[in-house]
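Input chain follows. Return structure tokens only.
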Amino acid sequence: MKNTRFKQSQNACAVLLIVSSIGMVAYQVVDIDDVASGLLYYVAQSFLLAGSIFGLDQYLRIIKREYRNDVRCKK
């Protein structure tokens, strides 16, 4: 139960980062017609963090699946 809540919170954090960065850029483009360099840095960092959250989760799933297959083959 705790593990699924942790994964849900990770996914929610990653999605919130992506949505917030896209929303902030859209607001600046519409309102000011320019994007500040600090905002671009925030967008880059939030995409990197969200990508690492999703990528690490996928990597751990692959490693766990390979480990299970190795254990089954040895029996």
